[in-house]
User: Fold Helix-turn-helix transcriptional regulator from Streptomyces cinnabarinus.
Amino acid sequence: MEIANRTLTVDVVAALTYWPDVIWGGQKNPPDPVDLAVLPPFFNEVLQELPWWNRDWKVSHVEPALPLEIESDHHGHPSRFTEVSVPGTVGSGGGDTLPFVAKVGFAGDRLIRFQAKIGDMVLGPAIAPAGRMEPHPFARVLTALMDLRGIPVKVMARETARSMSTIHMLRNGRHNPDPLLVQEIAKALGMSEADVRVIAGLDDSSTRC
Assistant:
């Protein structure tokens, strides 16, 4: 399934960039109205490409988007694409409804990424191939922090008194960071344990070893 890299129609781009509740430089205030009715068919088309999506459920209502990031080269700090959040509702043929939020990233008329939240479930593109578990999100951050500091796997293993295989698994997302390991990693990175706990997604209720 290839959700990204499709071409968006002019009407869909216009609807995604209609932000009547946001004031920003370069946009008419209030902006000229656009037809938001083009968005539900667009979202339904994307969702129905998911092989396990229940075709009985369809996006029935959307509201104006809220910009999360705006494509720009303003003040020498370029943003390569625009990303918006579009709230709405999905409904089933049986009359059930759930809140819906789509996060859509696009550059010009090219879709970059798409994520949908339906009720309390998030639907988004997978990182790992089909049939493989998704890596823990801490993996990418840990890898970047180690690389920025020039800390090789062997050194991190020595500093945390862990095997190199454990560090490799942390870096590729096949091992979850536990509180004691996070404490050891924070010391090796020269960061506060509290900061690394937040990055690792450990809350205050996590059991310390």
Notes: The first strand starts at residue 57 and ends at 62. The helical segments are 10-16, 39-47, 138-149, 153-160, 164-171, 179-189, 193-200. The chain has a mean pLDDT of 88. The chain has seven helices and six strands.
